[in-house]
Structure formats: structure tokens, C-alpha cells
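Quick one: co-fold with zinc ion.
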Amino acid sequence: MIHEVLIWPDPRLKTKARPVAEVDAAVRKLVDDLIETMYDQDGVGLAAPQIGASVRIVVIDQRPQVDPEKPPKPIVLINPVLVGGKGTAIWNEGCLSVPGEFEDVERFETITVRALNREGQPFEITDAAGLLAIALQHETDHLEGTLFVDHLSALKREMIKRRMKKLKREMISEGKSAREIIRERDQAEDSEEAPHAEGAL
Ligand SMILES: [Zn+2]
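Sure, here it is.
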């Protein structure tokens, strides 16, 4: 089932999510909904709080962005824990909960994560790099109630917050989705299409 993705500012995005106690049928259903919603939004990753579920589950699939010919292969991370970050990398990040906004954020260059998979078995991704490393850090941030805008200056964050509030008003008054409004705005401005506009996290 495809869910609505919450748009910041929203108190549900600022809440620390609770751990999954047991990977049961209800958890697997939520995992499947997250995957379906992520692909529907052309996202690279999605965390459960973004659809209003305050539990520690994230899904990631960078393949549609880095290897579009290959079939989708989502990574499911339940109760993920980042255990080792090395180096620094600046990445121009976007977020499905902050649609149309992309800003440089400093992250670890490589990261190791431990989590449970969809079957509840533990696994580790060691020294993830590139977009996967960024997505792992961005999505686990969501479980702490932290968004990429929290890594920006207060001034930039306030400017983006004003644009998001305006976007939400337009969604209601025009009865359109955030993506429709942003697409129409980009076309009206005749701006060059951002190459990674569909790669939000
Ligand atoms: Zn995000």
C-alpha cells in the first residue's frame, strides 16, 4: 500500500522512533508498504517516520539512481545501528519529506551498519561508500527525529521551512501533490532539470 509521505515541518518527523521488538507479519507489511511508497516517489530511501510510523525501520535502494538497467533490489534495515564512520564527504542531499530542496551536507565518507533484515536475521554492511553511505546516515537520522535541514545553518533552515509551509498551503488550495506543484514550478521557471531531482532520501 502506498502511503502519503509527511512533509516537514511536522511533529511526527521530529519524534525519536521506538525499536522493533519482534519482526512479525505486521512489521513485514510495514516494510512492504515502505518499499512500495519509496518506489512510487522515485526515492533512494525511506524511513518509517516519514509515513507516520514511529518505529526503527528504513528501506534503501540506490540502484534506480546509479544502475537503472538493473532490477530494483531494496535493502531492508530494522533497528539499524551505525557502528563505524570514516572520513568526510559532502553530498548534495534531498529528502522526500522536504520536496524540491537540495543542499550540501557533510557526512562520513564510509559507514558500517548492523541491522535485522525482513526475516529478522542480523546482518552487517561493512564500509558502505558513495550514495549508499549517505542514504544509511540520512535514513538513520530520521529514526532520531533529525532531518537533513537540521545539518544546515539556521538561516537556510528557516528559508526552507517557509517554502515548505507555502508548498503545503498550495497542495491544499490546488488539490495537487507536492511533486505536481514542484514539476509545474520547474517548467514555469524553464530551469535546467536537476539531474538528481528524483533521488531524494
Ligand atoms: Zn529524508
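If it helps, The two ends are 19 Å apart (CA to CA).
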